[in-house]
Structure prediction request, 824 residues.
Amino acid sequence: MAMSHLLLILALLSALVLTSSAANGSMLTQSGTISGNQTLDSPSNAFQLGLFAASNRSRWFLGIWFAVSPDTVVWVANRDRPLTSPSGVVELSGGGALVLRDAATNDTVWSSSNSSSSSSAAAVAVVGAVVAELRDTGNLVLTDAAGAVLWQSFEHPTNTFLPEMRVGKSIRTGADWSLSSWRGADDPSPGDFRYVMDTSGSPELYIWSHGRKTYRTGPWNGVRFSGIPEMTTFSDMFDFQFTATADEVSYMFRNRDGSPMSRVLLNESGVMQRMVWDQASGAWSNFWSGPRDQCDGYAKCGAFGVCSVVDAVVCGCITGFAPRSVAEWYMRNTSGGCARRTPLQCGDGDGFYVLRGVKLPDTHSSAVDPGASLQECARRCLATCSCTAYSAADIRGGGSGCIQWFGDLVDTRFVDDGQDLYVRLAKSELDVPKNTRKFVAVIALVVTGFTLLLLSLAFVIWRKARRSKKVNTLDDAAELMSGECPTYPLGVIRTATKGFCADSEIGRGGFGIVYKGQLPDGQQVAVKKLSAENTAQGLNEFMNEVVLIAKLQHRNLVRLLGCCVHCSERMLVYEYMSNKSLDAFIFDEKRRASLSWKTRLDVILGIARGVLYLHRDSRLNIIHRDLKAANVLLDADMVAKISDFGIARLFSSSADRQETITRTIIGTYGYMAPEYAMDGTVSFMQDVYSFGVLLLEIVSGRKNQRSFNLIAHAWGLWEGGRSHDLMDPAIRGGCTAGELEQAATCVQVALLCVQECPSQRPPMADVIPMLSQQKAPARPRRPVVCTPMMSSSHPAAAAAAALAAQAEITGGNGDLTITSLEGR
Ligand SMILES: *[C@@H]1O[C@H](CO)[C@@H](O)[C@H](O)[C@H]1NC(C)=O
Ligand SMILES: *[C@@H]1O[C@H](CO)[C@@H](O)[C@H](O)[C@H]1NC(C)=O
Ligand SMILES: *[C@@H]1O[C@H](CO)[C@@H](O)[C@H](O)[C@H]1NC(C)=O
Ligand SMILES: *[C@@H]1O[C@H](CO)[C@@H](O)[C@H](O)[C@H]1NC(C)=O
Ligand SMILES: *[C@@H]1O[C@H](CO)[C@@H](O)[C@H](O)[C@H]1NC(C)=O
Ligand SMILES: *[C@@H]1O[C@H](CO)[C@@H](O)[C@H](O)[C@H]1NC(C)=O
Ligand SMILES: *[C@@H]1O[C@H](CO)[C@@H](O)[C@H](O)[C@H]1NC(C)=O
Prediction:
């Protein structure tokens, strides 16, 4: 009797032990359950599965979360059917499915067999007992005794994408591995956003909301998604893998050994966030999110538009296209996009324009041939009348494969390190008028950096080879130049700069390196050595600069002493400016205080006189086009000297003086006039705009940049009658009332200079009398960059400002921008 009792107790005990170990290990067996606060822990305890509460503990869900961060739920089973109390029991059903049962009502709230795609589970015959296991990847897997996977949570993602997990589609089974956002921070039911693979054309991932795309990653280009250049910078932490076979199209990433835990989340606002666990702070750090900016908004600039985040006006048209409705574009409604200026000829009458550095347009209806070469791709595109563009499918090894687009090019934007898109145009669009510069170019992105020169300019040039009567060889260049300025032998320059040694280096920019040197006669010089890459670009810039500067003589322009050409090396020799550039003063914490208001005003007037000389008095009528603090040098007596004429534009025929459209958009973020950033309209007013920004920077000692809109800030202060508050705090204290008054005048003049509408900006000849208080400046209007564009909060203000600008353009001077836009 006692024996049988003992046996019974032992049997009960062992059953208890079995049950409890089944409930808190990484495995759940047929006999086990999980309920209440019990969890299934992955073998190394990275993830846990269990019940969690939302909405003040009024709704309960079965989920998987990071053990170190229990609030970070990565997967939810019963998203649509919450339990009302922690009464859920997780168990394996007799049929081998994992089920969540409500113990209170005995209802099955969720079952893995319901969420498995029809074909996959049914195809597998279950062998023996089924176990559920939570693996260290965060994957909950059901296997049978033979080890066959019956079901896994990684094939049923919710809002989180974990390492080793795939997003995409199985072509074979029809399974769709896509993410869907939560409805709210406290509500895991499926929300408005989905992250889906578009398998048509060249595959790409996109975010989908309310029946339309809101963001695309761009197609996979062999290395990364075309629109996410940042992926390259993460390659030390993650291994990205893209699969496109007849069976499946999918994307996944793995954490490299030793890299921290990470996840990618589609959040409730429809933003993809790559989060990385920071062990030190015990929190998630947001590494990347997309869409990043307004240019990532799907089809922001409409068909054949191209988006660039360089200024307030982000949309432009691809070369050869013009806004479909100019009036709407002035209203900043760019969704209508652009239309072709010259119809395609279909055949030999067409050619290709290279749009460099972009995220490729929507590939949904593109055709892809990974085997074709780029040349073959061009040939095929020309042979098909409906083909509008082509590009390489894989960028590795100089580019291979072929993507062809047939209709509108939608959602194209400039990105760092972007790809080349070959856009089909009628040949007449590709031919460049004789009096303009003989190459066609397109801006890539202007990158702001904190290098010595603070800014580096990245742009790419496509040169027309066919009609080139231009200087093609260095011999030609040397010949042309010898008449323009004295040349120095290379030996002299080399000795002067101590063989271009690193110690002599005083600056570095987009065009090359600047060295300090000493000529045999003791004179100090600055030698600008142009970079050897981009020969075409370098040569054009070089010629432009030499020809222009050699003819210019003004106290406020830096003087070119000579030049030196040797093989592929091209150098310019300038007088040396011992105080370097203005930005090294006004944006420097220590040195700014040494620049008194009186000196600043002298610098301002000096720059104004230099620009006026360029515009009017030099008889050459030059537009500088890249006026900025880094391009203003200061000599030993703090006299301002404008430098860097590499991209200046010469207007010798007065007929062409007013305005013209350039295909070369070059400039620096923050200083670029909106009409120029938008459609490349070049005029003297472009320099006036940059001067206005520079003026505000000199007064305030602050930089106009993405993170701080100096113009809006200055407007706010001016409007409130507190202009003198803009004055650099480093010198404000020591200023007299009269000086503060002068600063306030400068602010008002600057605000006039940065008016959105070019015709409202004062010509440089008027600026100087205004600054020296001989002429009263007009009242500026609110700059458009201050009004939130397209925002529902102030639609009236934005519309009014845009309307005013438009009326001014059409009414004021008949043949301004509008005619120019349609003229070519
Ligand atoms: C399971 O639970 C028991 C008692 O609650 C505990 O002693 C044991 O360490 C747990 N096992 C695991 C693997 O967590
Ligand atoms: C789990 O629940 C039991 C009883 O419901 C309770 O005694 C125990 O403290 C709970 N454990 C935790 C970690 O909340
Ligand atoms: C949650 O519960 C707390 C205390 O019970 C209460 O103060 C709070 O208003 C509740 N919040 C919601 C959203 O119901
Ligand atoms: C719950 O349902 C199972 C089968 O679905 C049944 O065997 C069991 O008796 C039910 N229990 C209660 C309390 O209704
Ligand atoms: C599973 O699917 C069947 C049929 O579609 C449905 O009747 C049942 O309610 C579902 N069960 C759960 C737990 O969703
Ligand atoms: C989604 O992510 C973006 C970008 O990181 C963030 O600004 C936003 O607040 C997030 N939304 C929610 C609901 O967390
Ligand atoms: C923008 O322009 C499109 C047509 O190009 C038009 O359908 C749409 O209503 C306009 N939107 C606004 C806000 O004016």
Q: What stands out?
A: The mean pLDDT is 79. Residues 264 and 274 are 4 Å apart (CA to CA). Residues 36-37 surround 2-acetamido-2-deoxy-beta-D-glucopyranose (ligand 2) (CB under 6 Å). The chain has five domains: 1-152, 157-292, 295-431, 441-575, 583-821.
